[in-house]
Amino acid sequence: MPNAIPQARAWNVSNAFWITLVHIVALIAIPFFTWGRLGLALFGLLVLAPLGINVGYHRLLTHRSFTAPRWLRNTLVTIGALIGGGPPHSLGREPSNPPSLH
Ligand SMILES: [Zn+2]
User: Fold this and answer.
1) What's the CA gap between 87 and 51, in Å, rounded?
2) Biggest alpha carbon–alpha carbon distance for the chain
3) Domain ranges in the chain?
4) How far apart, in Å, are the Cα atoms of 35 and each of 22, 41, 64, 96?
5) Entry pTM
6) How far is the CA of 38 from the centre of ligand 1 (A)?
7) Which stretches of 1-102 are DSSP H helices?
8) pLDDT tens column, 25-71
9) DSSP SS3 for 96
10) How far is the CA of 36 from the centre of ligand 1 (A)?
């Protein structure tokens, strides 16, 4: 009979830290709200995060889906690192080191 109770998952300390930090900063930012700052936050969330994480870290570094000039690769990876993607060297480059972004 299969185990009906799912096993507890270990805490990912890095993810817990980032999620906690984002929520603390969001609470601190409430008194400083303006529509312009909201637009800036949405730009980061809807433009920079997908560029850095989805395009730079995932498609470019993890899967090597495309080639890019050095300046573009460095820009995408830098954005991904600043968004909180972790160190880029941790992504799989060798068959024995599977990609971590899935
Ligand atoms: Zn993938």
Assistant:
1) 16
2) 57
3) 47-102
4) 19, 10, 38, 48
5) 0.64
6) 30
7) 13-29, 35-43, 49, 70-83
8) 999 999 999 999 999 999 999 999 999 999 999 999 889 999 999 99
9) coil
10) 34
